[in-house]
Amino acid sequence: MLSQRLTRVALVTGAAQGIGKAIALRLASDGLKIALNDIQSKGDQLEFIAEEIKKSYGSEVCVFPGDVSEERDVENMVETVSKSLGSLDVMVANAGISGSLTSILETSKYLSKEQWDDVLRVNSKGVFLCYKYAAKQMVAQGRSGGRIIGASSVAGKQGMTHTSAYTASKFAVRGITQVAALEFGQYGITVNAYAPGAIESSMCAFGPSFTPRDIPDVHETAQAANLSASPVGKAFSNSLPSFSTLGKTGDIAGLVSYLASQESGYITGQTISINGGMYFD
Ligand code: NAD
């Protein structure tokens, strides 16, 4: 088992905002060293979060902007992080995009072939690459106790209207997670994913990465960033039971904190629903 004396190192992708940021802060408060990743254009946001982590928790932090769907970026990122912080013990492959929301019949009009591929490239291939290079590093370190965690979704459990690319990409994360769990178990590495329902973040509020502007009847509500005011948003929030509300990014961070801990060693290959009762496995 990993020595208690070692300070473990976690790399969180898509950490400039939302769920990824909350996970990074939570793992720092758990005492891990933190590596932050997001796309190049969010480098300043990452530096700001790095400062926040240093000030609040005194943790060692490094920032590595890069695209998780580019193999060279992921390989360099894992190598650099491991050298700078001493190891890689927890990989959180959180980065994701939603693409435009549109029905399958209208994809030619509102979601180009390239955009459809982009969603799969970032959400599925990106997770695959993060799993691959994290596991390579963990195996090379030669010690047990590695934790690999990916972002799926309630849309990875049950198809959601207007989200063909996103749903496909998040089902894929479940599959990759199961395969990786079977293959990496012999090295003492567990692999799991989280499947959030509706969590308050820019993605769920139809912020920039959701690009609902491409759908005429969602157009007006995009500016309002109001989940309950669009057709897709209504369908989404209506599937919450009456006692429930939107989740908080900290809810997901709490689950990831447990999955990243050494206590969670008997859980692997699972995609864990965390959705306020929106969907039951
Ligand atoms: P968000 O849009 O607020 O944050 C996602 C982050 O990923 C952004 O900072 C973005 O810049 C980054 N990113 C996008 N493409 C990237 C790339 N190629 N390389 C590196 N970084 C990249 O979204 P969020 O709500 O915080 O979601 C985080 C994860 O949780 C995503 O995978 C999302 O699909 C999943 N999820 C979110 C919800 C929700 O309700 N918010 C529900 C289910 C699943």
Automatic annotation (TrEMBL):
The keyword NADP is assigned to this record: yes
Keyword Protein biosynthesis: no
InterPro entries, alphabetized: NAD(P)-bd_dom_sf (IPR036291), Sc_DH/Rdtase_CS (IPR020904), SDR_fam (IPR002347)
Keyword terms, alphabetized: NADP
Pfam families the record matches: adh_short, adh_short_C2
Family to which this protein belongs: Belongs to the short-chain dehydrogenases/reductases (SDR) family.
Annotated protein name in UniProt: Acetoin reductase family protein
Organism encoding this protein: Lentinula boryana
